[in-house]
Amino acid sequence: MITQVTKGIKISVNTSFEGTFFKNYKMHFAFGYTITIENQSKDSVQLTSRHWKIYDALNELEILDGEGVIGKKPVIKPGESHTYTSGCLLASPIGAMRGHYNMVNFSSTEKFRVYIPTFKFHAPFALN
């Protein structure tokens, strides 16, 4: 598990390899990830949007920006957490993701970023 804390918000990430398949005459490697966002601060916060950089071993970079996470903009009270699972497709059996969440502190109305640590993907057959 990979973890990182920014301004009292702890991000924990677990990854998994989901399998391979062909699409449009090309091999794809499917990976899953589960992220827990834990509010260790004294204020309620809301996740408003996300920014991802997705890398694969073939030097391909994909940048994704979007509202919330999996269709939600969770409000996380002090001492509570929000967990979700998502996934990505890579053109190679090895890759990584990193990024940040844009958040709002309900007490101060401050907007801030919570950094998501780099987490790696690898198909079990790709590493010794």
Word description of this protein:
The chain has 128 residues and is an all-beta fold. The protein has one domain (2-126): Immunoglobulin-like, CATH 2.60.40. Helix content is 0%, strand content 70%. The chain has no helices and nine strands. It has strands at 2-6, 9-23, 26-39, 45-56, 61-67, 75-76, 81-90, 94-105, 111-122. The strands form two sheets. Strands 4, 5, 6, 8 and 9 form a five-stranded antiparallel sheet that branches. β8 (94-105) and β9 (111-122) form a beta hairpin. It is elongated. The two termini are 20 Å apart. The relative contact order is 0.28. The mean pLDDT is 95. Residues 3-128 form the ApaG domain. This is ApaG protein. Pfam families: DUF525. InterPro entries: ApaG_domain, ApaG_sf.
